[in-house]
Amino acid sequence: MDTESAKPATTIDPDEESPIEEVRLTVSTTDDPSLPVWTFRMWFLGILSCVILSFLNTFFSYRTEPLIISMISVQVATLPIGRFMAAVLPAKKFRLLGFEFTLNPGPFNMKEHVLISIFANAGSAFGSGSAYAVSIVDIIRAFYHRKISFVASWILVITTQVLGYGWAGVLRKYVVDPAQMWWPSSLVQVSLFRALHETDTSSRMSRAKFFVIALVCSFTWYIIPGYLFPTLSNLSILCLVFSKSVTAQQIGSGMKGLGILSFTVDWSVIASFMGSPLVTPFFAIVNVYIGFVMVMYVLIPIAYWGFDMYGAKTFPIFSSHLFDHRGQTYNVSAIVNDDFEIDMKQYEKQGRIHMSTFFALTYGIGFAAVISTITHVVLFNGREIVNQFRASTKGKIDIHTKLMRKYEDIPNWWFYLLVGSSVILSLVLCLFMKDQIQMPWWGLLLACLLASSFTLPISVITATTNQTPGLNIITEYLMGVIYPGRPIANVTFKTYGYISMAQAVSFLNDFKLGHYMKIPPRSMFLVQFIGTIIAGTINISVAWWLLTTVENICQDQLLPPDSPWTCPGDRVFYDASVIWGLVGPKRIFGSLGAYSALNWFFMVGFLGPLVVYMFHKAFPNQKWIQLINLPVILGSCAMMPPATTLNFNSWVFVGTIFNFFVLKYRKRWWQKYNYVLSAALDAGLAFMGILLYFSLTMSGIGISWWGTDGEHCPLATCPTAKGVIADGCPVN
Q: Which residue among 19, 78, 548, 645 has the highest number of C-beta atoms inside a 10 angstrom radius?
């Protein structure tokens, strides 16, 4: 039994209790400062977890169904390993360079476990999979077919990942130490740590044994959809029944259509893009599905078949590609000159860029989601945020902050040094390697100013409401207006402006987890920083290897039908670089573009929460009204594209089974095994995926039959407008 679990609860001063009920119910009010954290086990398992997760997440990010292996998998998997190491490693003390240490300081404790998980979180880029800046390298090499050096790529990845840590560290006293800044998402991790470390007295199968069995099953099963029978990953009944009907395949395709009567038995399809449905609360699943249904099964059919909005029938019903006015794939390479800027003569010759109506509407919904998040938070949480922030500045501390005062704090000069060195290294990139990333020095400084200015208010919003408004649309829109015609400059500015802020918020979120778990601050910072450097280096190294060795990677039109290397996320990132950077928002969403009406979605995002709020005030007894969360509903399709309808439907289906039915009718099973099952499914799939690649795919060993020919919905991408010609499609 762990020391932490064994310590009896102590009576605390009521004035020191957390003002947040959820924190009082979840977080322990005791601490044992004598527990070792800088242990061999922590370093070994932490670095190993970071390396494995950063490798696997980068590797899988290029696949049609990208898998993100999260921190939770490591939380579950490393507990039995840590306890095994505590049981078998020698306790003998060694001396090295004047320092005394031991491989086994005693029982594996919760603080070690937390730091290992923080290492792992860095390896999964705080749940994003791999470093965001890797996509810049991907589109330069795989889509634009231009060159960027490995050194420039490494600097780009590392600086964008750690830059925000500097100013975030200075802000800890405002958004980590105060009890009112409670960071709801961190309580999930606290609950899981405490559940895993509780003494198991039941007669049921242990979590460790269940994990191994589930992992073996997942590992063994994935050889079927992953190699022998890939069609099981996305099987459409309508496509099989109506093999010559364009409309039926548009409705039935789960990858390129509405996904009616399509299904999968592949965990990588279920868990890709949105993560494991087993760890998503049911209320969140419901909110997401409401938004998804409204968009995909109401808005899109009306826009496509009802109004032929934006010439919808000229293009595929579901596509993230760019087209010309004839419905042909837009030749982006032709409008890029030798200086990697827009060639206006060629652009005028080819004409405007067009999108599928689905893709266009997702941009509009994205506009609304960004603004609605701000409006919703101000209306429904504004007073609470202001009151909590005011209370946090009055100097009153709760029991958790009091306990953390026992540990040596981090001097601010550490963070100033980190900011300074990151900015200097970034300026080196902008000044001496500008030909590779296009962004001028003033763009970097503007991005840093934006990111640092927004970090505090967005951190306060996240810490109190668990909603994090993003700056991605704001940054790409801004740079597209002031510095158009340069695609890489736009995405680089977006990455420095948006990801630096997002990394800062994630850094603070992890720090709050460490605060609740009573981890020494210096240990937290060093693990986060070292883990990020390791992960970023592996991210770009794996990306470089795949971009060099996989023929036609990311070129879905040149790859075989069953090839997994389609890079759906990078495709959307590339399209964004064309829309916002190369062509510019003025020629897409402005007066010179075809989609200027989509700007009205900004107004929808502003007014929508206001309408809900007015109804809430008019009918205060109707409690269901305040449960209408427009940012969640509008943001539900933020992952589409690259996520598909099959991803959403299967994710919702599995999530509903486990987080509603199993939780309701088999609660004890759910409490003990749900997270363990999620981790085992991820791990088994990942290990088999890697094994298949190195043992068969790299050697060119494959099989070919009906079950390896993909979804069997070849007509789902066909246009239905009269006279439009597309390869393999009937002409109307």
A: 78
